[in-house]
Design goal:
Length: 280
């Protein structure tokens, strides 16, 4: 295993460069290469983990998630230009309706008892985001090649969420995290918390679609765990100088736009979502 890899950011095509990062570059070929490499990594990791079935991969063994083209992606890329780690950030305006969020599609959100509590917890966070003029981000699509687990790459994939959030001006975030492989417990170590409604923490739930125990977690970019602040600052400095790749706006898929809703098409600032091994 080589020790050399670099960060790469992929941005949605509707993003306007605003000087937050080093340089914004339009390169459809390179963007497509990294996006496909990331989706193949996801497919390989998720299939081995049992989170998806072979029929959910496309003809190039990619696992494509709805909204990939409209999301930010943080990638770890080896010298051979293959993606060895990834995390996805689906950024929403803080005025987004609950029904438009992926978390609203979770099994817990559809439960007759817990569903109203999930909505209440998320809408509370949306009010917080509006009060502080922040985005609401859904984090997901995490994957890391097996040979890189237990290395600094694993921690960077996790902590990058806070670094990006600070560069974006802050955000409130949520994710659907699997309990197996200690994914949810690792997220708690960096600042993840259970969603709460009326002082009641939402418990883990059995997700029939993914066949595992899941948790809904929240993050506030203003309150990272203090021992990770030096690493967050290091990652911020590296990301601030990173080149951001995006496809041309003309390449934007209208079918995806219809699925996600008009808010995502018109919202030109930043936002995002989170997970390690199991897709959200």
């Amino acid at each position: 295993m080589r020790n050399n890899y670099h960060f790469q950011l992929l941005a949605p095509p509707q993003t306007r460069p605003d000087g937050t990062f080093g340089r914004s570059k339009i390169n459809e070929q390179l963007y497509g290469h990294y996006l496909s490499s990331m989706q193949r990594l996801r497919g390989r990791v998720y299939l081995k983990d049992g989170a998806i079935q072979p029929c959910e991969l496309d003809y190039e063994d990619r696992f494509r998630m709805r909204g990939d083209e409209q999301s930010w992606h943080f990638l770890l890329v080896e010298d051979d230009q293959n993606v060895i780690g990834c995390a996805r950030y689906l950024v929403h305006p803080n005025t987004v309706r609950f029904e438009r969020l992926r978390i609203a599609e979770s099994a817990q959100a559809k439960d007759s008892y817990w569903g109203p509590r999930v909505r209440r917890a998320v809408e509370t966070d949306l009010r917080r985001a509006r009060a502080y003029h922040q985005s609401y981000v859904e984090i997901g699509g995490w994957a890391l090649s097996e040979e890189w687990r237990g290395t600094k790459a694993a921690m960077e994939i996790l902590v990058a969420s806070y670094a990006l959030a600070h560069l974006w001006g802050g955000c409130v975030a949520s994710c659907m995290a699997t309990v197996r492989h200690c994914s949810s417990s690792m997220l708690r170590r960096i600042g993840g918390e259970s969603l709460e409604a009326g002082g009641e923490s939402l418990p883990p739930y059995e997700d029939p679609q993914y066949g595992c125990l899941m948790e809904l977690l929240r993050f506030d970019s203003r309150s990272p765990v203090q021992r990770f602040v030096p690493l967050i600052d290091q990652l911020k400095a590296r990301m601030a100088n990173a080149t951001v790749l995006r496809a041309r706006k003309e390449q934007f898929s209208r079918s995806f736009a219809m699925e996600l809703g008009a808010e995502h098409v018109s919202f030109l600032r930043h936002g995002a979502t989170l997970q390690l091994v199991v897709r959200p």
